[in-house]
TrEMBL record, chain A:
Protein name: DUF742 domain-containing protein
Gene source species: Streptomyces phaeoluteigriseus
InterPro entries the UniProt entry points to: DUF742
Superkingdom assignment: Bacteria
Automatic annotation (TrEMBL), chain B:
Family label: Belongs to the GPN-loop GTPase family.
Matching CDD domains: Ras_like_GTPase
This protein's UniProt keywords: ATP-binding, GTP-binding, Hydrolase, Nucleotide-binding
Superkingdom to which the source organism belongs: Bacteria
Protein name: ATP-binding protein
One function term, GO molecular function aspect: ATP binding
């Protein structure tokens, strides 16, 4: 694990999640699902100073490309709920942009399944 | 002071024109081979994350009275496969416990379908997870992880034991093998296509 080594290891205490999320509630699922793709807004020049160390680290993590919410939680080893709350706050603050998963609909499903099948076949022969 | 994380380029989702994410669940009882399966075909080293049992917001309320109360956490693991410029596929592995409701809801919502790994020697251990998958309305295929390398002896008996519909695919796979795992996944996707028509 890189970078986040200096974050406190996860403990069963609840105090820490409360502090780092500043007591905010969970964003709803439509806004940030496990597979919502997230990246930092590119044209923001200097790092804002009012962000917490955890928020700054998340922003840093997201600055080199897209990652899913699940991957962000995996890389940071923060609990998923905490990550979602912090990402929602950063998105609201204009620091992050999110790309939600496709809406499920019969036509979209058939197209996507076709694409997934072809992709798997191309990859694994 | 928190240092900036540094991930290499491969850790990020390949930038496509309008890349969007889809997911498939890989479920099964403890030690059936979920993590092995995901590791065999994921393009990134498999990751895991924990969902606190109580939702964070509720945990905050709990705090007021119950300092130091321990929350149970549960791991889900996952991997990623870039399908095309348009689609990136995530595989989420999870154990079948009914009590991890929040995690199941997060994982099942919007999933294309599920691959249920079963151990033919421990079929009864798969009942709970199949019930859950059906409860969430997910289409699924069965992948029999043949630990000892022996072929599946009796598919009919397995179908009966698991009470499968006639059109539910049953494949055998070796979760340690990329090709074999990919074939199980392809079987599932073909089944999902049939169901979508
Ligand atoms: N012989 C054999 N061992 C396997 C196979 N799949 C998984 N295992 C082993 O079974 C154990 C449990 O697998 P794991 O993937 O951790 O199961 P999980 O709890 O479902 O994630 C591990 O020690 C694996 O190495 C298989 O196809 N053949
Ligand atoms: Mg596992």
């Amino acid at each position: 694990m890189t970078g986040f080594d200096e974050l406190e290891p996860q403990t069963p205490e609840l105090v820490r999640p409360y502090v780092i999320t500043k007591g905010r509630g969970l964003p709803d699922e439509e806004q940030l699902s496990l597979i919502t793709l997230v990246t930092a807004v590119a044209d923001r020049q200097q790092r804002p100073t009012r962000l917490s160390p955890e928020e700054q680290s998340l922003l840093e993590l997201c600055s080199a490309g897209y990652l899913s919410v699940a991957e962000i939680a995996g890389h940071t080893q923060l609990p998923l709920g905490v990550v979602k709350i912090l990402l929602a706050a950063l998105t609201e603050g204009g620091y992050l942009i999110t790309r939600p998963p496709v809406q499920r609909a019969p036509v979209a499903d058939r197209e996507i399944l076709e694409e997934v099948l072809n992709g798997l076949r191309a990859k694994f022969g | 002071m928190v240092s900036g994380p540094s991930l290499d380029e491969q850790a990020y989702v390949r930038e496509g024109a309008s890349q969007t994410a889809v997911k498939i669940l890989v479920v099964g009882h403890f030690a059936v081979g979920k993590t092995t399966f995901i590791g065999a075909i994921s393009e990134i080293p498999p990751l895991s994350t924990e969902e606190t049992m109580t939702r964070a917001a509720e945990a905050v309320d709990d705090l007021k009275g119950v300092q130091g109360k321990t929350t149970t956490t549960v791991a889900m693991d996952f991997g990623r496969l870039t399908i095309s410029d348009r689609v990136v596929l995530y595989l989420f592995g999870t154990p079948g416990q009914q009590r991890f409701v929040q995690m199941w809801e997060d994982m099942a919502r919007g999933a294309l379908g599920a691959l249920v790994l079963v151990d033919p020697e421990r079929l009864a251990d798969s009942f709970a997870v199949i019930d859950l998958i059906e409860q969430y309305g997910l289409d699924y295929a069965i992948a029999v992880n043949h630990f000892d390398g022996s072929p599946l002896r009796d598919e009919t008996a397995l179908r009966d034991a698991l009470d499968l519909l006639d059109d539910t695919p049953v494949v055998t796979c070796d979760a340690r093998d990329e090709q074999s795992s990919a074939e199980a996944l392809i079987t599932l996707v073909r089944h999902l296509q049939d169901r979508a028509h």
